[in-house]
Structures are given as C-alpha cells and as structure tokens.
C-alpha cells in the first residue's frame, strides 16, 4: 500500500521539479536578455544587434566585423554593460539578504534597509570618503561599509534586547529607529566634511550605479558568491529558524551562534554592495515575497529565486532610472523607494487581514 501511494506521488513530485526548473531556466534567459537590452537603452539609443556585436567582439576579438563607431563601443562596453552587471549583482545580493533576514527574524517585513544594515554601511562609506581617506586603497570603502553594517546590526539587536522588543514586528520598528539615528550621524559627517565632495556623498545616500567599472565588479561578486553560498548551504537551518528558536534548537541548530553568523554574513554582503551602489532600499523586502508566491516558503528555493528575480528587477529599475529623465541619470534609490513604499503599505494591509 505504501509503495502504491509513493508511486502516485512520484509524478506530482516530478512535475513540481520540472516546473521549478523551467521557471529558473526561464528566469536566467530573461536576465540575460535584460542585460543585453540594457546595453541599448539610454540617452543614446543603440540597436540591439550592435550591442551583441560589440560584446562578441570584446569576448572573441576578431569574430565580428567592426561596423560601429568607437563612441558606441565605449558606451556599450565601458559604461552600460558593467553597469547592468553591477545591477544584477546588487539585486541578487539584496534579494538573498532580505530572504535570509526574514527567515532568521521570523518577520516577513525584515529588510536590510529597514533593519538599519544599509544605513550603517552608508555611514561607513561616507566616513571613508569624507574623513579617513582611502588609507587601505580600494578596499577602504568596502571594509568600512561592512564595519558600519555590522555595528548597525549589533546595535539593533542590543536595543531590541534592552527594550524587550525581540518580537518580529518590534524588531523591525527598532531597526527603523536605529536607521534614523545612524542616518542622522551620517548627515552630521556630511556637514563636517568637504562640501566639494557632495556629489559623491549624494550617490551613496540616494543609490546609483553610475560609477560601475569592470575592475570593481569582482569585489561585490566575490561577496555575493561567499555570503550567498553560505545562505544556500544553511537553507535547512533557515527553514528551522522560521518555526521558532525552541523548535530549531530541537532540530540541532545552534540558535544564538547561527543568528549571529547570518547577521555577519548579511552585513558583509550588504556592506560590499553599498560600497559600489549606494543605499538601495526595499529590494530585499519585495523580491522574497514575490518569490514565495511563486515557489513556496522553502528557503532551498526562495534563496536562489530571490537572487535571480532581484537581479532582473534591479536591471530594469536601472534602465528606467536612466531613461525616464534622459539625459539626466535619476538615482535608482528613488525608484526602489517608490516601489518599495507602496509594496510595504500593501503588505501591511494584507497582514492586518
């Protein structure tokens, strides 16, 4: 009897795996097409066949006859393509961080922006740019951004314990309060800093991908692979944490240590992303919710799909940011803030029901 039931359930399991595989492969195809299209959109429109030809000629020199201008080639290869790749990396990282934080805090409203992680990273980046200088070279901004994100996360946890506000909803409120305090301190740093560096600081406060360079992509990509791999490897532990600390401990999860490790990994990844993209909010809030609607709540599926959908979302958000007011380049944080604010209100309304 048991074997017959298993035989009946097998096709359903196969269908589910096939559906998820199709969805994931389709998402990868959409991401690749999105990055290609992003190379053609902007103040100067470039045909898609030219974009593909430029990329093919750079990857395989001499494989395509050069029929385009040097200016188009520089726009595609030196400006738009690394920018689209950085958008994909940042979107993937923020999506995974949001999913991990929501699991570890058992709060679907958790987000690196709302929990103060992004604000702490921005504080560290502004400190490096305006006051300490690049004393460690190119690593200075990412390291201080990571330190700021880690300190902000520690403060949120400490204040929550001090105020006896460790419940899911109160933890988010604590994060918002700490975020306001940290941003006030960041504004104070700006006030004390060199006014001539205001444009650079605005980039970090409002978020933007206009400083993307090929030589810089390796750093956020390495942080994404390291921390994202850690989240995925511990997906079962994240699943256990969603049902409560006591249940997770019963299943063998070292609750206190694991929560600290996840916060450190989230701070490291967020700090690395903020160092090269500025503070881009609400991606980590919106994307995991949309993913759970499609693939369910198992973090084995939620984490990789959050990375994929986050990458697609931010690529197109960046395309919209640099085309809606062309030739002006709107900070991408403005758009994600608009989308995220509306999504947050809708999410609160659904939770209240």
Topology:
Blueprint (H helix, E strand, L loop, with lengths): L1 H37 L9 H12 L10 H35 L12 H16 L7 H23 L5 H25 L5 H9 L11 H16 L1 H7 L3 H6 L4 H23 L5 H13 L3 H25 L8 H21 L1
Helix pairs in contact: 1-3, 1-13, 3-8, 3-11, 3-12, 3-13, 4-5, 4-6, 4-7, 4-11, 5-6, 5-11, 8-11, 12-13
Brief description of this entry?
With 353 residues, this protein is mainly α. Helix content is 76%, strand content 0%. The protein has 14 helices and no strands.
Q: What is the end-to-end distance?
A: 42 Å
How many beta-strand elements?
0
Count of helical segments? 14
Which percent band covers the strand fraction? under 5%
What is the global morphology?
globular
Structure description:
There is one protein chain. The protein is mostly helical. Helices cover 76% and strands 0% of the residues. The protein has 14 helices and no strands. The longest helix has 37 residues, at 2-38. The mean pLDDT is 84.
List keywords for this structure.
353 residues, 14 helices, 0% strand, mainly alpha
